[in-house]
Amino acid sequence: MADKKTAQPSKKTSGGGFSAPLQPDAALAAVIGSEPMPRTEVTKRIWDYVKKNNLQDPNDKRTIRADAKLKPVFDGKDAVSMFEMTKLVNNHLKK
User: Fold this and answer.
1) In angstroms, rounded to a whole number, what is the distance separating the alpha carbons of residues 13 and 75?
2) CA separation (Å) from 85 to 12, 49, 65, 82?
3) Contact predicate 62/81, CB 8 Å
4) Rg from Cα positions in the chain
5) Of 15, 22, 55, 69, which residue is 20 to 30 A from 31 by alpha carbon distance?
6) What's the pTM?
7) CA atoms within 13 A on the CB side of 37
8) Orientation angle between helical segments 82-90 and 39-52, nearest 10 degrees
9) Which helix (H) or strand (E) is 24 found in, with range?
């Protein structure tokens, strides 16, 4: 029987790209919390907030309606598409 090699743990420890923790500004922190987190977690928490508060347009699920907390994040817009949301949220994240 041949010896099987054991899986070596990944040595990559630095987070880059989507996994790098970013600091939300005050407007975004009011929605998702103030601790640094990766972009993927930011997006997940925003979607959790949108679904919890029933902010998706019932006629077009790709449109998100802003409430008082999201309006500053959405640059004062009443509604944005989910694609535009990502762009606007990135403006509220710092390294």
Assistant:
1) 35
2) 30, 13, 10, 5
3) yes
4) 18
5) 15
6) 0.77
7) 17
8) 130
9) strand 23-24
